[in-house]
């Protein structure tokens, strides 16, 4: 069992561990962690661009909820779609073409199952990728940009600025959407519940957290060895922890990439525990 680092050293130790993790696995890794309880943080490549992949669906769901909060749309509105709208990996929307789905159901499918058609249908109500980018700007995020829809946005070609974000920018969005006032309280709770119900992240960040710690997260994966996980961690006691982890340019299997993200979760939990013991 690792001995807890002193609070002053925990961030530096975590950053060293992330750099070694990146080097050992031959990947490019971006991480931002902010403990709201101690108000301490650590990061690695947090201001560099990484492919978003399906983590954009968190923002899409937030944008739809914000429109409903303002009375500009209704979560009960039924969205009709057909076979031509169905794209790869659509486990929820695929079987429901005949009856359609409400906006609320599409948000849930996009967040909890990462359903790609659901993500595209949400985008269509927001003005497409430019609408999502505009929503990010309205949140104060100057970095995130969405340029394409599913599944083209998952290309993740190295150096391509399209469909990218930074770990710091996405952590800020998590803060505003889930812990701030960007959404009404009921919508904020609804989004948190969807993230907590996510079925796609069990072997990523969540796998590295101690027993009794919960995470509401949104995953993403794409080409060129890209594998992401972002969310809010609720330790057993105290305030939440914001975490965003982006991994790309890996030549390893998806399972091995997931294991790297699980190690990021362990590193984050160790730092948070040290901060809170010393505060």
UniProtKB/TrEMBL annotation:
Keywords: Antibiotic resistance, Hydrolase. Gene3D superfamilies: DD-peptidase/beta-lactamase superfamily (3.40.710.10). GO terms for molecular function: beta-lactamase activity. One of its GO terms (biological process) is response to antibiotic. Its EC number is 3.5.2.6. PROSITE patterns: BETA_LACTAMASE_A (PS00146). The keyword Coiled coil does not apply. The keyword Repressor does not apply. It catalyses: a beta-lactam + H2O = a substituted beta-amino acid. InterPro entries: Beta-lactam/transpept-like, Beta-lactam_cat, Beta-lactam_class-A, Beta-lactam_class-A_AS. It is an enzyme of class 3 (hydrolase). Residues 30-246 form the Beta-lactamase class A catalytic domain. Belongs to the class-A beta-lactamase family. This is Beta-lactamase.
